Amino acid sequence: MDGIAPIGMGPDGVTLWRNPSDLMNNFYINISAIAFTNIQNELIGSVNSAEIKRLKRYEKEIENRKDIWKGNTIGVFEAKAD
């Protein structure tokens, strides 16, 4: 059967599976969009200030917890080996 196969519907109206031709069409549309536009540069440049603040808070939290993690892990393996 050529072309797009009909999608089966479940009793609740939700599709039972994703049509493979639809999936491949989306894949080729993505590849074409990346190849012939500058969407990647626009996406990279669209990092907003909230995202930068979130990343800084995350890095600060990791730095604050390093000492706690170190204290919880140093000597644990030595105690179990004895």
What does this structure look like?
This protein is mainly alpha-helical and 82 residues long. The chain has 2 domains: 7-46, no CATH class; 48-82. 67% of the residues lie in helices and 0% in strands. It is built from 4 helices and no strands. The protein starts with 19 loop residues before the first helix and ends with a helix.
Number of strands: 0
Q: How would you sum up the global shape?
A: flat
Summing up helix and strand content along with how strands pair, one would put the structural category as mainly alpha
Distance between the termini: 69 Å
Total number of helices: 4
* Mean pLDDT score: 76
Q: Any idea how many domains? A: 2
Over all CA atoms, what is the radius of gyration?
25 Å
Q: What is the string of SSEs from the N terminus onward?
A: HHHH
**Roughly how much helix do the residues carry, as a percent range?**
55-70%
Please indicate the percent range of residues in DSSP E strands (runs of 2 or more): under 5%
Biggest sheet, in brief?
none
Weakly predicted, low-confidence segments? none
Brief write-up:
This protein has 82 residues and is an all-alpha fold.
